[in-house]
Specification:
The protein is an alpha/beta fold. It folds into 2 domains: about 200 residues, 2-enoyl-CoA Hydratase, Chain A, domain 1, CATH 3.90.226; about 45 residues. Helices cover about 45% and strands about 15% of the residues. It has 10 helices and 10 strands. The chain is globular and about 70 Å long.
């Protein structure tokens, strides 16, 4: 067993903590696999209706542990494409494709692929002291793990290129102002507020949340007409759900709804 990933189960939700604080939670292969196992377990568990991802110590995640990719210790150049395909990409696919809300609490620097992990989540909350750094260009690489897609999609070409080429740190307050993250919060209340939000999501209409994620993700590539049809299909599914029936019944009876995520 590894302690590089910690999983804490709560009432209807889980907290996954990146736990290599002495390495700023940078990933080695063991940590990649443990993170994937934690994500898969959360995704497959119907009793887990929301997920919170955060980091231990003074930083969220510094990306890949470059000690594992030292050219001086290798017989030839590393196959970084294999690293992305085998480790990073499967994990962000799990985050983005999870049929439940995924909240990220960025508690310090999020650099390289660490930034990409955060941006793959549905709601990103960041401490005021946090920074997002596209550090790839400092070592001759590109923003990976979905990073180049998220930057262009969320910020536009000019800002995406500026951040990626200069590796200039983006403070959390500016990240919020630019629309890269949802909210910047005081350091001392970040985790508490992130946990409270995740707990609220876990008690909400999570079937509808999953369809909302699907619709927003599809909007990036759909034509307008195709998207109208997708919305109709998803609304049909939501209208047939127990959560919708409960929500309307509770509203008409002037009581709080008790959603089941079905």
């Amino acid at each position: 067993m590894t302690d590089s990933i910690l999983v804490d189960s709560h009432d209807g939700w889980r907290q996954i903590t990146l736990n290599r604080p002495n390495q700023l939670n940078s990933f080695n292969e063991e940590m990649h696999l443990a993170f994937r196992a934690a994500l898969e377990a959360a995704s497959d568990d119907a009793g887990c209706r929301a997920v919170l991802i955060t980091g231990a110590g003074r930083g969220f995640c510094a990306g890949q542990d470059l000690g594992d990719r030292d050219p001086a210790k290798m017989d030839g150049p590393p196959d970084l494409g294999k690293t992305v395909r085998s480790f990073w990409a499967p994990n962000v696919r799990l985050i983005r494709g999870m049929a439940k809300p995924v909240v990220c609490a960025v508690n310090g620097v999020a650099a390289g692929a660490g930034s990409s992990i955060a941006l793959a989540c549905d709601i990103v909350l960041a401490a005021k002291s946090a920074k997002f750094i596209q550090s790839f260009s400092r070592v001759g690489l590109i923003p990976d793990t979905g990073g180049s897609w998220h930057l262009r999609e969320m910020l536009g070409e000019a800002r995406a290129k500026g951040l990626a080429l200069t590796a200039e740190p983006l403070p959390a307050e500016k990240a919020e102002a630019w629309g890269l993250i949802w909210k910047c919060l005081p350091d001392e209340t970040l985790l508490e507020e992130a946990q409270a939000m995740t707990a609220r999501f876990a008690q909400g209409p999570t079937f509808g949340y999953a369809q909302t994620k699907r619709a927003i993700h599809a909007a990036a590539t759909d034509t307008y007409e195709d998207h109208l049809e997708l919305e109709a299909e998803l609304m049909k599914a939501c209208g047939e759900s127990a959560d919708y029936a409960e929500g309307v019944t509770a509203f008409l009876n002037k009581r709080e709804p008790k959603f089941q995520g079905k």
